[in-house]
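Q: Hi! Curious about what MFS transporter, ACS family, hexuronate transporter looks like structurally. Here's the sequence.
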Amino acid sequence: MKIKNYRWIIVSLLFTGTVINYLDRQVIGLLKPTLEAEFSWSESDFGSLMSAFSFAYAIGLLISGKFIDKVGTKIGYSVAVVVWSVAGMLHAAARSVTGFGIARAALGIGEAGNFPAAVKAVSEWFPRKERALATGIFNSGTAVGSVVALILVPLIMQSYGWQGVFVITGALGFIWLAFWLFFYEIPSRQKRLTKDELLYIEGDKEDESGTQIQAKSSASWVKLFSLRQTWAVITGKLLIDPIFWFFGIWLPSYFSAAFNLNLKVISWELMTIYAATTVGSIAGGYFSSVLIKNGWPTLKARKGVLLIVAILELIIMIAIARFVTDKWVAVGLIAVAVAVHQAWATNVFTMASDMFPKEVVSSVVGIAGMSGAVGGILFPLLVGKILDIYKAGGNLTGGYNVIFTICGITYLVAWTIIHLLTRRAPKIEKLAT
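A: Let's find out. The predicted structure is below.
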């Protein structure tokens, strides 16, 4: 049976996969107080666990991008889901920092496949003018996954303990996999797709200057690393991804330390914050798409949104660090900060599909995501050290304020570098292997 607008079914699959990806990732942050009490972890121990995940995530991204470009989106995404789901369940067997570190590393390897596969699927299924919106929709799954974690983790823990949380949330990936295998195929092979929609999807294979974009099936990493466009996407991930991971993993602990938030029950404060990121992800993609429809050049529209994000983040982070003493004021400001961050993430991802032929999009996203994970290796170690120092001095909240200030400045630095790298970058018309 032919289905109209089948491409939006694909987005719903990508969205749900991303929800599960971030649900599995967020579990340990919500269980942090419980695990710290049971295993006597320090802040630095927890930071080391996050770095183990980031290190494996970096390796996984570098491998997965190339792997998905080679075997295709359907198989590549399937392999990633199996690996991260099994790894999530294996956390239940860990009994030491080393054991959790091994499980986190395995989770990082598997979860690395999510975004290269999803961005490649968008490039396969959507015309250029809809890609930012489609990316924003599936990327909003990061927020929904965090919200779902806030609901499920306390409920499961009350009945099955922390081990049950890891087992049940990890198993959700296998349910999703059945739907993915049934519904996904590239447009040219998808029998449920109407002829009109296929023509619409394939109707803008020319770039903005009217030049046909051509590429062989893959390009060498050496070639990709030689391009300023690649380094622009790398910058957007290297400097900024660790900030979002900090929000995702340490935010529950921040509210617990600063406002005595009880993480063993459903937290409406954290749900409010993570729900806001859904709005930011979709709105960020929609806004740049509107600018393009109103005549802005594609890259200028993406960078315009990134600049607005950078300025807003600087203002918000400084306000949190210097002036916030009320819990709900902190909730409001951080909700805006993480929502605005998602607008950044959506446009950085979409820049990759804008500047590169779809045959190498997963490789570029994988390289950039690996770079973000490298930043994620170092930043948790810094966070752990800062928090341990301030904790020893009896002012743990002050340590968080220092980190918020660092985060705010970083966005503007990242935008400046991206702008300089892409200001005179030529359009990519052909890539050699």
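A: A fun detail: The first strand starts at residue 214 and ends at 215.
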